[in-house]
Amino acid sequence: MSETRNDWTREEIAALFDLPFTELVFRAAEVHRAHHAANAVQLSTLLSIKTGGCPEDCGYCNQSTHAETGLKATKLMDVRAVLQAAAQAKDSGSSRFCMGAAWRNPKDRDMPAIVEMVKGVRGMGMETCMTLGMLTEKQAGMLADAGLDYYNHNIDTAPERYGEVISTRTFEDRLETLEHVREAGINVCCGGIVGMGETRADRVGFLHALATLPRHPESVPVNALVPVKGTVLGDMLADTPLAKIDEIEFVRTVAVARITMPESMVRLSAGRESMSDSTQALCFLAGANSIFTGEKLLTTGNAGDDKDAALFARLGIMPMAAACKAELEAAE
After folding, report:
1. Out of 169, 189, 258, 272, which one is annotated catalytic?
2. Annotated catalytic residue: which of 27, 96, 129, 161?
3. 200 given a catalytic annotation
4. Would 174 be classed as within a structural domain?
5. Per the confidence metrics, is the pTM higher than 0.85?
6. Which has more confidence, 223 or 273?
7. Which of these, 97, 177, 200, 202, is most buried using a 10 Å CB contact count?
8. Active-site residue 324, yes or no?
9. How many structural domains compose the chain?
């Protein structure tokens, strides 16, 4: 049941989605416990180090120049400001610091500052993650030399639906960057977004694309679309509330991700601020073991540290860093 496979078929993944809900969650919980601590969740913080002005036309994104959201574009943050934010995140309990820049791809002139950010955050003892758009082999190598732990580059949706969401790059472009990241020896963080008006078959295709990669992503973020007025999908779905993914279906997606990619960290990402505590609890039961903390993700709202701490206390969940520390102390 907990065997790691890369040969999943769409039919097998569809069959998992079709299981009775309690049976699916039970199976996912068994797989989770075979590979991960049952009640430990990694706390990560996400910072936008360069906001807006992206030339890509991703239909979900308010940082695109094609969106009319009034978001003001900014320049790349100063390295010292980024490191200060990382220190604050660590003080709040985060063990992983993720930095995102709204670029199609970074310019070579930006890389020295990016490298210093990675080195500085790692020097604090935190895991590092970057999402900067598409990378060349050289740029991936520079990030690897700096000690970057993870690179995030989402496939967003199923391959056959990709062109309906984004037209300025291809699905194959995404895979090429993932190959550069892998070849450089950096862990891959790769997931996507659900609730964009897709069908269950599309969600099957999305997870199939991830679960059949030569090596599963070490981190799989599952985002629920946060519709933003002025974006293509935000405007399109604003008047069709039924297009929003059902919370039970969202939990099913998390559970299937856990079963098909048993060793990966499965992260609840965007959209969590609008989920009930009960839905989040079901996601943790189904194998999610990483969240973003804080009041804000890149540009959209998030649940907030206090609310997360209260939920963890109710559920008996420990932040992963604290759980590891307690385990070490118990062994001494």
Report:
1. 189
2. 129
3. no
4. yes
5. yes
6. 223
7. 97
8. no
9. 1
